[in-house]
Amino acid sequence: MTRKITRALARIKLGLQDALYLGNLDAKRDWGHAKDYVQMQWLMLQQEKPEDYVIATGVQHSVREFVAIAAAELGMSVSWQGKGLDEIGIEEKSGKTIVQIDPRYFRPTEVETLLGDPSKAKEQLGWEPKISFAEMVQEMVVEDLKTAERDQMIRQKGYKAYNYFE
Protein backbone atom coordinates (compact mmCIF):
# COMPACT_ATOMS: atom_id res chain seq x y z
CA MET A 1 0.00 0.00 0.00
CA THR A 2 2.83 2.42 0.74
CA ARG A 3 4.13 2.29 -2.81
CA LYS A 4 0.60 2.78 -4.09
CA ILE A 5 0.40 6.00 -2.06
CA THR A 6 3.72 7.52 -3.13
CA ARG A 7 3.25 6.53 -6.77
CA ALA A 8 -0.28 7.94 -6.94
CA LEU A 9 0.55 11.21 -5.19
CA ALA A 10 3.51 11.82 -7.52
CA ARG A 11 1.23 11.24 -10.51
CA ILE A 12 -1.47 13.49 -9.04
CA LYS A 13 1.10 16.24 -8.50
CA LEU A 14 1.99 16.13 -12.20
CA GLY A 15 -1.60 15.88 -13.43
CA LEU A 16 -1.25 12.28 -14.60
CA GLN A 17 -3.85 10.93 -12.18
CA ASP A 18 -6.90 12.41 -10.51
CA ALA A 19 -7.21 10.61 -7.18
CA LEU A 20 -5.81 7.98 -4.84
CA TYR A 21 -8.26 5.35 -3.58
CA LEU A 22 -7.65 3.79 -0.17
CA GLY A 23 -9.43 1.78 2.49
CA ASN A 24 -8.86 2.22 6.21
CA LEU A 25 -6.96 5.48 6.75
CA ASP A 26 -6.68 4.84 10.47
CA ALA A 27 -4.97 1.45 10.21
CA LYS A 28 -1.64 1.64 12.03
CA ARG A 29 1.45 -0.18 10.88
CA ASP A 30 5.05 -0.58 11.95
CA TRP A 31 6.78 0.45 8.72
CA GLY A 32 10.54 0.36 8.37
CA HIS A 33 13.20 0.66 5.71
CA ALA A 34 14.52 -2.41 3.90
CA LYS A 35 18.13 -1.31 4.48
CA ASP A 36 17.58 -1.39 8.23
CA TYR A 37 15.89 -4.77 8.03
CA VAL A 38 18.68 -6.27 5.92
CA GLN A 39 21.24 -5.02 8.44
CA MET A 40 19.23 -6.73 11.19
CA GLN A 41 19.13 -9.98 9.20
CA TRP A 42 22.89 -9.82 8.72
CA LEU A 43 23.42 -9.32 12.46
CA MET A 44 21.18 -12.29 13.21
CA LEU A 45 23.25 -14.49 10.92
CA GLN A 46 26.49 -13.52 12.69
CA GLN A 47 25.38 -15.14 15.95
CA GLU A 48 26.86 -18.47 17.03
CA LYS A 49 23.51 -19.68 18.33
CA PRO A 50 20.38 -19.16 16.20
CA GLU A 51 17.57 -17.28 17.91
CA ASP A 52 14.31 -15.67 16.92
CA TYR A 53 14.17 -11.88 16.68
CA VAL A 54 11.42 -9.47 15.76
CA ILE A 55 12.46 -7.21 12.91
CA ALA A 56 10.46 -4.03 13.44
CA THR A 57 10.87 -0.38 14.33
CA GLY A 58 8.67 -0.46 17.41
CA VAL A 59 6.89 2.68 16.16
CA GLN A 60 3.46 2.90 14.53
CA HIS A 61 2.15 5.28 11.90
CA SER A 62 -1.31 5.45 10.36
CA VAL A 63 -2.09 5.29 6.66
CA ARG A 64 -3.42 8.84 7.02
CA GLU A 65 -0.05 9.97 8.40
CA PHE A 66 1.77 8.24 5.55
CA VAL A 67 -0.40 10.15 3.04
CA ALA A 68 0.24 13.47 4.81
CA ILE A 69 4.02 13.05 4.86
CA ALA A 70 4.17 11.89 1.24
CA ALA A 71 1.97 14.77 0.11
CA ALA A 72 4.08 17.30 2.04
CA GLU A 73 7.20 15.97 0.35
CA LEU A 74 5.54 16.88 -2.96
CA GLY A 75 4.59 20.36 -1.73
CA MET A 76 0.96 19.42 -1.16
CA SER A 77 -1.09 19.68 2.00
CA VAL A 78 -4.09 17.41 2.55
CA SER A 79 -7.07 18.31 4.71
CA TRP A 80 -9.60 15.64 5.60
CA GLN A 81 -13.36 16.04 5.41
CA GLY A 82 -16.19 13.63 6.15
CA LYS A 83 -16.20 10.35 8.03
CA GLY A 84 -15.97 6.68 7.17
CA LEU A 85 -16.68 5.79 3.55
CA ASP A 86 -17.52 9.43 2.83
CA GLU A 87 -14.17 10.78 3.99
CA ILE A 88 -12.07 12.58 1.39
CA GLY A 89 -8.66 14.19 1.30
CA ILE A 90 -8.56 17.62 -0.30
CA GLU A 91 -5.37 19.22 -1.56
CA GLU A 92 -5.53 22.61 0.11
CA LYS A 93 -3.93 24.77 -2.61
CA SER A 94 -6.02 23.48 -5.51
CA GLY A 95 -9.14 22.48 -3.58
CA LYS A 96 -9.21 19.20 -5.52
CA THR A 97 -10.23 15.92 -3.93
CA ILE A 98 -7.13 13.75 -4.24
CA VAL A 99 -7.90 10.95 -1.77
CA GLN A 100 -11.12 8.97 -1.71
CA ILE A 101 -12.25 5.97 0.27
CA ASP A 102 -13.19 2.87 -1.68
CA PRO A 103 -14.84 -0.01 0.21
CA ARG A 104 -13.04 -2.50 -2.05
CA TYR A 105 -9.85 -1.67 -0.17
CA PHE A 106 -11.16 -2.56 3.26
CA ARG A 107 -9.75 -5.94 4.17
CA PRO A 108 -12.30 -8.48 5.40
CA THR A 109 -9.96 -9.46 8.23
CA GLU A 110 -8.49 -6.01 8.79
CA VAL A 111 -6.01 -5.72 11.60
CA GLU A 112 -6.32 -2.21 13.03
CA THR A 113 -2.85 -2.10 14.49
CA LEU A 114 0.42 -3.90 13.83
CA LEU A 115 3.40 -3.18 16.05
CA GLY A 116 6.58 -5.17 16.53
CA ASP A 117 8.80 -5.21 19.61
CA PRO A 118 12.47 -5.10 18.54
CA SER A 119 13.82 -4.82 22.11
CA LYS A 120 15.53 -8.23 22.03
CA ALA A 121 17.41 -7.26 18.87
CA LYS A 122 18.48 -4.00 20.48
CA GLU A 123 19.59 -5.66 23.73
CA GLN A 124 21.39 -8.65 22.25
CA LEU A 125 22.63 -7.33 18.92
CA GLY A 126 22.76 -3.58 19.42
CA TRP A 127 20.42 -3.12 16.46
CA GLU A 128 18.25 -0.06 16.04
CA PRO A 129 16.70 1.28 12.86
CA LYS A 130 18.69 4.19 11.46
CA ILE A 131 16.31 5.46 8.78
CA SER A 132 13.31 7.36 10.13
CA PHE A 133 9.76 6.91 8.89
CA ALA A 134 9.81 10.37 7.29
CA GLU A 135 13.14 9.65 5.55
CA MET A 136 11.77 6.39 4.20
CA VAL A 137 8.65 8.10 2.83
CA GLN A 138 10.79 10.88 1.35
CA GLU A 139 13.00 8.35 -0.44
CA MET A 140 9.96 6.58 -1.89
CA VAL A 141 8.40 9.85 -3.07
CA VAL A 142 11.61 11.02 -4.75
CA GLU A 143 11.89 7.80 -6.75
CA ASP A 144 8.21 7.70 -7.71
CA LEU A 145 8.33 11.34 -8.76
CA LYS A 146 11.19 10.50 -11.16
CA THR A 147 9.05 7.79 -12.74
CA ALA A 148 6.04 10.09 -12.97
CA GLU A 149 8.17 12.81 -14.58
CA ARG A 150 9.33 10.30 -17.17
CA ASP A 151 5.71 9.38 -17.92
CA GLN A 152 4.80 13.05 -18.16
CA MET A 153 7.61 13.66 -20.67
CA ILE A 154 6.52 10.65 -22.73
CA ARG A 155 2.98 12.03 -22.92
CA GLN A 156 4.24 15.50 -23.81
CA LYS A 157 6.12 13.96 -26.74
CA GLY A 158 2.85 12.45 -27.99
CA TYR A 159 3.31 8.90 -26.79
CA LYS A 160 1.12 6.90 -24.45
CA ALA A 161 2.24 6.22 -20.90
CA TYR A 162 -0.04 3.74 -19.22
CA ASN A 163 -0.71 3.65 -15.50
CA TYR A 164 -0.75 -0.05 -14.70
CA PHE A 165 -0.56 0.56 -10.99
CA GLU A 166 -3.37 1.14 -8.59
Word description of this protein:
- Its EC number is 4.2.1.47.
- With 166 residues, the chain is α+β, with helices and mostly antiparallel strands.
- Helices cover 40% and strands 12% of the residues.
- The strands form two sheets. Strands 1-6-5-4 form a four-stranded mixed sheet.
- Strand 5 and strand 6 form a beta hairpin.
- Helix 1 packs parallel to helix 3, helix 1 packs across helix 5 and helix 3 packs across helix 5.
Strand order of the largest sheet: 1-6-5-4
CATH class: Alpha Beta
- Given the helix and strand composition, which structural class is it? alpha+beta
Largest sheet: 4 strands, mixed
Order of helices and strands: HEEHEHEEEHH
What is the C-alpha radius of gyration, as a whole number of Å?
Answer: 18 Å
**Average of pLDDT:** 95
Strand content: 5-15%
Q: Would you identify the CATH architecture? A: Alpha-Beta Complex
Number of strands: 6
The CATH superfamily is known as UDP-galactose 4-epimerase, domain 1
CATH topology (level 3) name = UDP-galactose 4-epimerase, domain 1
Q: Which oligomerization state do the chains in this entry correspond to? A: single chain
Shape designation: globular
Overall tally of domains = 1
Stretches with pLDDT under 50, minimum 5 residues? none
| Distance separating the two termini | 9 Å
